[in-house]
Amino acid sequence: MMPLLDARPRAVRLRKALSSTAFGTRNVDSRGPGWYLTAVPTALRPLLPLLTILLLSACGGVSTAAKPSPSPSPTPAPSASTDLGSLALAFAGPYAGTWTNTTFGSKGTVMAVIAFDPATQTVTANLTVGGMVFGGPAPPPETFSGKLGQLGSLAFSGHSPTFGDFSVTTTGPTFVMKAQNVPNARVDHFEADGLLTGTTISGTYKVFFKDSTTADGVFSLAKS
Question: What predicted TM-score, i.e. pTM, was given to this entire model?
Answer without folding.
Answer: 0.59
